[in-house]
Amino acid sequence: MLIARLAPLALFVALAGCETRFLPASDASGAVLLSEPAQEGDVRAAIIRSLKAERFETESEDAGLIQARYRKGDRSIQIAVEYTGAQYRIRYLASEGFEQKEEGGEIMIEQSFHKQITKLKKHIEREMLKPAPVAPSQ
């Protein structure tokens, strides 16, 4: 009898856990201040290494800006990483295969996008803590 009463509750909890959670795409784009200022080239190198490690493909580069895309199966994320010697910022550009909607003029994208960007930010942070490579002496 108790099982019959709890079955609808268990079904509700299971279905609620499967609902896609949406967050504003802009939430992932706040500027990240570096713990210590660095040469812009060192910041760029740390970002490039992190993009590669997190399986992003660099699509284009300009001074202070890298555009990259992450692909996995039929899903992709396109981002722009703006950087200086003091900070960097990751901006959402586009995606395919991720659920999204517009709410109040803002793009809302499923939470897994934010998880991928958080992993990338943590990797950049770790890379920035590594000592800069020493140039070979001539």
Word description of this protein:
The chain has 138 residues and is an alpha+beta fold. It has helices at residues 2-18, 40-53, 111-129, and strands spanning 22-24, 32-33, 56-62, 65-72, 75-83, 87-96, 100-103, 106-110. A hairpin with a 3-residue loop joins β5 and β6 (87-96). The model is unreliable at 9-16 (pLDDT under 50).
How would you concisely characterize the structure shown here?
With 138 residues, this protein is an alpha+beta fold.
- Mind summarizing the main beta sheet? 5 strands, antiparallel
Radius of gyration: 20 Å
Count of DSSP helices? Answer: 3
Task: List the uncertain runs.
Answer: 9-16
Which of globular, elongated, flat, extended, rod-shaped describes the shape? Answer: elongated
List its traits.
138 residues, five-stranded antiparallel β-sheet, alpha+beta, three-stranded antiparallel β-sheet, 3 helices
Set down the secondary structure blueprint:
Blueprint: H1 2-18, E1 22-24, E2 32-33, H2 40-53, E3 56-62, E4 65-72, E5 75-83, E6 87-96, E7 100-103, E8 106-110, H3 111-129
